[in-house]
Amino acid sequence: MAERIQQRLEDRVPELEQLERVGLFTRKEIRAVLRKASALEYKIQRRALRKEDFINYIQYEINLLELIKKRRARTGYSFKKEEIEHSILHRVHSVFNRATGKWKDDVQLWLSHVAFCKQWNAKHQLSKVFSTMLAIHSNKPALWIMAAKWEMETRLSSESARHLFLRALRFHPECPKLYQEYFRMELMHAEKQRKEKQEFEQAKMDLGEFNYSEEILNGEMARIVYREASQKIKGVEFQLAVLSIAKLFDFTQDLQKEILESLQARYADDPLTWDYMARRELELGSLQPSEYLTKQKKVSEMAQREERCCAVFDEAVRAVPTENMWKCYITFCLERYNRKTNSKDLKQKRLERTLSVFSKAHESSLLSEALYKQWLQLLLDSSLSEKAVEVAEAATRCFSQSVETWQMRLRVLIQLKRDDVTQCFEEAIKHVKSKGTLPLWTLWVEWSEGTNSKEDTEALYQRSLHATTPAESVTMKEMYLDWTYRNCGYKKVKRLFTSLCENRPFSLDFFRKMIQIEKEQESCKMLYLREYYERALREFGSTNTDLWLDYIKEELSHPQGKPENCGSIHWRAMKMLQGDLVEDFVSKYTLLQTGHL
């Protein structure tokens, strides 16, 4: 191994001598490079190879290349690149090849090699990398697309890109993304040929026997790709994706027409088809250029376009009366309403149209829960509070088991300060199953705290403890404890804590809250703190190291504390804590003893 490493270091000597001779590096820097290179070489030549060592080696060589590049820019010296940079590049490629040969499944390593080749314009080497990578990772369509794009856009080789796409489709005959990018490539090729032909014609050059094929110039290859894909890939999403690509090229009107006809014939009942057809009306503007239109005419024309869109949507909801179809219609209306405009009339018209569509969807019983929420928000933003109350009530009738819908209705009533809030809470608790009602109870007690008397709020807290599931009651206990301390004082909260401790489960925050309350008292008693810590440790002593450490800190720092108890607390912690927590506790306890915690 040593002989091989020595040979590799000697291979570096010519480039390092050149670096010193031309003044890019000093003798001292050359020695430092050799020392570092020697260390890196030993790591990648040993028997037990590690990927990180190869990555570090490559990164060092790349940093060296970047440094040479900066030194050249600073000194203005641009010669001897063949002897210096090319030698380093060759070495980096060699190390990359070893690494990717050893860890073939690491796609990120392959992509790093690809990125390096692109950065240093190593086209020949990159072609080899893509070839090897695709032979190993032929199951990844994204890599085929990357290779084909590079062939098309960098090497300007449409034939190579086409060959790669055809090979990829043998492995992935039903991959929509592959067909989309192949379709795009054929259109780019046609556009490139059209531009070439136009330039030749403008230059009046004689092309001899060479002729451009009219079929290729008109995108016939892309049409073939589309037809082949349409037979294998079902779904309106693919058709719309291909259509959006075709619209980027100005010579594809016939192709767009074919795709559109296929879309309407095969997916007439799909909401996305209708959504596209309706939105298409926005693009069909007037024949007169927009710069010659006054502001009033622009507003008028936009209103007409939106009316045409809505006419198509109206036809759509009659033809395809589904929840998704109404969702598309409402989404369009909300998008138009949220667009900025200086015209108050247009804004008002958009609002009226949106509210009308919401109402029609509701009457058809095809409005989803999420859309009810959007409808309510729109009504509240528009100061239509009475209508908002009606809609909220209708939503809870449709989704009576949904906690979110009841929350939505209750927040509307609370925001509007209605008298029937309590009645609505009662109704919500009755309809919703006990599991999952925690958000309703927290909302109810928070509202009661600011509205009702202390007695009513306390009765509500007591009721919530019995009504919620044991796991959810934990949160209610924390809230109850906090509210009692804020409103009824220390003595009452102490009695409440003792009472709540009779029924499990508890949370750690429940005990920490009581400990904090005790600490806030003028005559904070260590006796009570010990009691709270001991209760907490009975529940969480086996899973929480910080609780033990806080207990020890309290004994050390409290005026009434007993430092001699720390030893027994430490011994109990070592017995109770589970698994790796013991080691964690020991390290933290050591830091505490040395004053670093």
TrEMBL record:
<feature type="domain" description="U3 small nucleolar RNA-associated protein 6 N-terminal">
    <location>
        <begin position="9"/>
        <end position="91"/>
    </location>
</feature>
<dbReference type="Pfam" id="PF24892">
    <property type="entry name" value="UTP6_C"/>
</dbReference>
<keyword id="KW-0698">rRNA processing</keyword>
<dbReference type="GO" id="GO:0030515">
    <property type="term" value="F:snoRNA binding"/>
</dbReference>
<protein>
    <submittedName>
        <fullName>UTP6 protein</fullName>
    </submittedName>
</protein>
<keyword id="KW-0677">Repeat</keyword>
<dbReference type="GO" id="GO:0000462">
    <property type="term" value="P:maturation of SSU-rRNA from tricistronic rRNA transcript (SSU-rRNA, 5.8S rRNA, LSU-rRNA)"/>
</dbReference>
<dbReference type="Pfam" id="PF08640">
    <property type="entry name" value="U3_assoc_6"/>
</dbReference>
<dbReference type="InterPro" id="IPR013949">
    <property type="entry name" value="Utp6"/>
</dbReference>
<keyword id="KW-0539">Nucleus</keyword>
<feature type="domain" description="U3 small nucleolar RNA-associated protein 6 homolog C-terminal">
    <location>
        <begin position="307"/>
        <end position="577"/>
    </location>
</feature>
<dbReference type="GO" id="GO:0032040">
    <property type="term" value="C:small-subunit processome"/>
</dbReference>
<dbReference type="InterPro" id="IPR055347">
    <property type="entry name" value="UTP6_N"/>
</dbReference>
<dbReference type="InterPro" id="IPR011990">
    <property type="entry name" value="TPR-like_helical_dom_sf"/>
</dbReference>
<dbReference type="InterPro" id="IPR003107">
    <property type="entry name" value="HAT"/>
</dbReference>
<dbReference type="GO" id="GO:0034388">
    <property type="term" value="C:Pwp2p-containing subcomplex of 90S preribosome"/>
</dbReference>
<dbReference type="InterPro" id="IPR056907">
    <property type="entry name" value="UTP6_C"/>
</dbReference>
<comment type="similarity">
    <text>Belongs to the UTP6 family.</text>
</comment>
